[in-house]
Design brief:
Helix content: 25-40%
CATH architecture: 3-Layer(bba) Sandwich
Number of domains: 1
Number of helices: 10
Order of helices and strands: EHEEEHEEEHEEEEHEEEHEHHEHEHH
Length: 326
């Protein structure tokens, strides 16, 4: 079976990798220059930031086996510092995740996970698919290239548009994504706290997640005596400020960060704003509802099982199994 996969995020890579391992031919179309989707890395001068998923927490699911047994582990780091909670003005002694979980990252950036999963696959980068063709003799086509099956591995709102181009609408309406404004900050300040990340558990404060990149991967993310932080803002703040200028977003975020961590964090030497329009799904749709039995045009993503890296990967595995059964 020849299968086209639209999107090289975790779900798309999982589909393609599983099908190829079973002898099927796959082609992956990706509009970006790198695989991984929201498992992304940005390098600015001497700083390295995981601008999407700042850690990978597979919770014993299929992705964990891939990470530890099937992929190169030479750059894999088990993060040995915990997550702590904050209330906007101070770091709390507890309040992080109540269940101990193994968290991973890659020394050169978490985009490495996507690169490893993409090895051996036919991935066409910088190839944006706007519509699907449905030839009269059956199957599907992308840019004139024929496939017996297609998997649209994208955020639900984008997937819906592509499915409609094939005259195959699906009930994906309940799925909405929350946006996330993410700031990549490099400071000429040494900072090695006893935690690798801070979370605001009520999701009410503008700074809901702060990853100390130079603490989770010492020696890999910032020059000696410097620190690198990734700050993710909450859904409410991100919606209100999504179209605001970078300067305004940075000014407000740095004011909150300084209130929490101190005056050394008011003047970064590197500051970049990343806008994730489709950050996390606020609802899910079951795989069966999104993909009627018998169809070889599937839609899949983290909006199927939940908005986490390992769940997106698991959803891709589900799609691969469905196609093989079909």
């Amino acid at each position: 079976m020849r299968v086209g996969v639209i999107g090289a995020g975790m779900a798309g890579l999982a589909v393609a990798r599983r099908l190829q391992s079973q002898g099927h031919e796959t082609v992956v179309f990706e509009k970006s220059v790198a695989p991984g989707g929201r498992v992304a890395t940005r390098r600015i001068g001497p700083y390295t930031f995981d601008s999407g998923a700042t850690s990978i927490t597979p919770r014993g699911m299929e992705l964990e086996k891939f990470i530890n047994k099937d992929l190169d582990t030479s750059g894999l780091i088990v993060i040995d510092k915990p997550v702590r909670a904050h209330d906007g003005v101070r770091v709390l002694m507890g309040g992080g995740p109540s269940i101990p979980m193994t968290r991973y990252c890659y020394a050169e950036g978490n985009v490495r996970l996507g690169e490893l999963l993409a090895e051996g696959l036919d991935v066409r980068y910088q190839f944006e698919v706007g519509e699907i063709e449905v030839p009269a003799d059956g199957g599907y086509a992308v840019n004139g290239e024929s496939f017996e099956a297609l998997v649209v591995a994208m955020p639900a709102e984008q997937a819906r548009s592509i499915l409609e181009s094939a005259r195959d609408p699906r009930p994906l309406t309940p799925v909405k994504f929350r946006p996330c404004l993410t700031l990549l900050l490099g400071f000429a300040v040494a900072f090695d706290p006893p935690y690798h990340a801070l979370v605001e558990t009520e999701q009410a404060h503008p700074l809901t997640w702060i990853s100390v990149e130079s603490s989770k991967a010492p020696g890999h993310r910032a020059p000696e005596g410097h620190s690198a932080l990734v700050v993710q803002t909450g859904a409410d703040y991100s919606r209100r400020r999504f179209e605001a200028t970078d300067d305004l977003i940075a000014q407000e975020t740095l004011a909150e960060l300084t209130r929490l961590l101190g005056s050394g964090f008011d003047s970064p030497e590197v500051c970049e704003v990343k806008r994730w329009r489709f950050s996390l799904p606020e609802a899910t749709v079951s795989f069966e509802r999104a993909n009627p039995l018998g169809t070889r045009l599937l839609a899949v993503g983290d909006w199927i099982l939940g908005g986490r890296t390992e769940l997106a990967f698991e959803a891709g595995e589900v799609a691969a199994r469905r196609l093989m059964e079909t």
